[in-house]
Write a structure and sequence with these properties.
This protein is an alpha+beta fold. Among the domains are: 34-89; 127-228, no CATH class. 39% of the residues lie in helices and 14% in strands. The protein is extended and about 75 Å long.
Amino acid sequence: MPQINAAAALQISMLLFALPAQYFISQWYGTDSAKRSQITERIIASWSISTRSYFSLDAWADCLKLWLSKTRTCLYVELLILHFRNWYYGENKTKSGDNAAKPRSYLAASTHVHSPKPEYIKFRVGQVIIHRRFGYSGVIVGWDVKANTPEEQLQPRYPPVKQDLKDTPHYRILINKANGFGKSTAYVSEEEITVIMGLEVVHHPDMETYFSGYDGSKYIMQPWLKKLYPHD
């Protein structure tokens, strides 16, 4: 990743300051002291919000995601954003002796090809499911052969009596908005869900990104997703 030295940082700061400064100068002259005070306060507030947005990774990522949703661009790019966020916030660790950290994705968001598919993976991407305990419906958009979450999340998720569930298949679910469950996605073990037939309509803003239609038994994967799960 390129390093930003002091000179480059100063140049960026000057560029960011140029627009509010120009506005400040144009508005300052020709007004009385009360109006100048109000204008100054507005500029300071605007500047504070702008700088937080310029230097926030989440803000830039949210802007890109908004653009992607408007253009219906493949969610593959969004998965790359997830990889970058994992790296940026230090969720990836460098193994002893490695020269560089290896990217790792969690919660069935990996972009590696899932082939061959183990026979013990019961369900397929595109199938509609219902959660046995919470009752919400949704559609599968990815799976892992076992729980793939940051280590600090595994312990509270699986108490001692359920430790064996960590080594069972897990699925990423787009939750049907019609259920009013309050969450948009879920990551659940295989024993927590069951496939249901005859429920074609799953309402979720990302459905068209993952799927192109419904064939009567499951949703049809978009080409980019089919490449990741060729046997589903």
